[in-house]
């Protein structure tokens, strides 16, 4: 059905918007998603003649939105792009000299300010989705405020959903807020969290959510409720799992499933706008993209997990944590509103009402949880060196600025007066994160014979991983990935893989056969081409073929903060943090060189080094003559982790500014002073239950009876309270003994939620099993016993200590089981053995046996997330 654009709420208020803009340099336009803010305001401005005085720009925080918005406006104005309407994003420019309405990502706006600090060719800039408060949005607002002071003819429009518009008005000197009302239909709220019976084997949290989604859709279909369904989930992996579960459901023939997440190809993303086939109900499964960035018509049912994945950066350790976290009340309400745009609807919240009521009002702004080094580098490029006093809408923490400064100084990007150094001046030529651009600069300046290889590395580091592990095909996928491994690590593997890909005539088949994401490989190829064009434009030839040692020197110059030394059997440490493990997705997972360099250090279930290559002492000396000495000086050093928002110290909690702490409700009610002091010192409260603290070597340790603790975790609604206990040590009390003694509370809670920790009898598992794979019978015998992996059993009867049954292997194809006291050791060794099994038994195992290995691999791999 054709859209009558002039009937959209924003277009109907055309005159109000123009009148306010004529009288003010800045206005805030506030309205619900779907009212036409994004698409109609640029059209209104164009029709009013603003495009005669300059270009009208609209910024978008996401590529998918920039594409869909530009297509929508071009269609409305009956033009093609590039032309009157165009879009520009990193490594893709669809504009020309005739473009008057330009849709761009906010990162591109920052790049353009470098060439034209006063944005002289623009008449109006509209910052769309401003309520998202991304780092780029906040930086853009600060720079635009400077331009407004010197260009009285310049106009700025802040477009926001109905969330905290007053903050923007206050920042721009109490500028007017234009509120555009839209018809809002009633949405029935249903709080319906997954029901997990604590007496049965516990389904993982993810599986519980997926089961609840399946039953909810079944209910909607049985009740013949009209309209389509929108499901909010936190990430790509669980969306794919949800798609698979719904494909296998009993009502598969009644639904049309459409996933939506950032990595999907453009054509796949656009399917969310298509109607479902006749007789079917469309089910869109999306990340938070569908909260505000994309408007999908016909939605009457929303199923909200209440979760999203947010990145948190630690400026002291230079590490990132991608954390699945409850979304704010504002985001919950945005999601609910998707069900009431065109008629009344229903929102099923897969969490309790009390959970919703305990959430923060708004999502923590990105400026408080993101690496600021790129922003500071761009500020220096614009001549802004007083970083601490820049007029941000929200002032970042001082330690975040100091951490970013330290990063830039380690990269040698700044002079002592904070102006750009010669290295920094070259770094800002590239639209890359500072560490990645530093790789290119090192190659240009010192190792030009590996510039092509360095560009390939930069392209890989600027995208998602191209390696995919489809559920049920893990063994075949890992076997394909193993073919690209190299003794010199992942960075050399990337070069080998890319050159093989480029040489293939049928690239689609190559990606399919090797379990590679074709969209990501195309993006890597496109980025490489763009970077080589930019380098050539500087008059620098792009050559390759030099030694891999020179190449790894370039990588290390950019990733200097992620050069690590082995610290024990399984752990590494950098100059700033310890307890780092090589991620199982790395080709270096089963190795333990003394020194490594990583492309990133990320905290999920623990601290992981991603994209890893080994370094020799000779290479360390070339990178920095003092580096080996510095690393060896911190090797074996003890110290508490600097990550996390709160730390448990004795019987108190040290709280960082702005983060939730602990209160009396933690124990289920108010306590008098003496009771509170006693309990603070000797116990903790979870889910209405009290757990004792005991002292071990002078430090507090929680005593956690298994069944009681499992029920308490299910009853605890406040995840901030659980987060506050993350670093507290504990032990699990089971019938006949103890397990996980001295492990962190965070790990114990995760295992209790996701594994059946009821011990198996010491006589029932294959203690004396030892087999070398020679034929199918050997393979069958091994597969039959994989069910025991990660089961608890008695490790030391004298101390009543339980451990985890672990699968071990060696380079000769021999496999055996043994008990490991530590869970991390059990997990790492078992997954490493399965990786060996991929190589040893790929041709021995039949399809059914492979399925069993795949299920175990998938389960083990999920425990790293």
Would you kindly provide a written description of the structure presented here, covering whatever features stand out?
With 865 residues, the protein is of the alpha/beta class. The protein folds into 7 domains: 5-179, Rossmann fold (3-Layer(aba) Sandwich), CATH 3.40.50; 187-314 and 322-367, P-loop containing nucleotide triphosphate hydrolases (Rossmann fold), CATH 3.40.50.300; 371-428, Arc Repressor Mutant, subunit A; 433-558, no CATH class; 559-636, no CATH class; 646-753, no CATH class; 770-862, no CATH class. It contains 32 helices and 32 strands. An 8-stranded mixed β-sheet has the order 4-3-5-2-6-7-1-8, sandwiched between helices. Strands 14, 15, 17, 18, 19, 20 and 21 form a 7-stranded mixed β-sheet that branches. Strands 9-16-13-10-12-11 form a 6-stranded parallel β-sheet, sandwiched between helices. α17 (434-446) runs antiparallel to α18 and α18 crosses α22 (518-537). The longest helix has 20 residues, at 518-537. The two termini are 43 Å apart. Residues 18-181 form the Helicase ATP-binding domain. Belongs to the DEAD box helicase family. DEAH subfamily. Residues 654-673 have a biased composition (Basic and acidic residues). One of its GO terms (molecular function) is helicase activity.
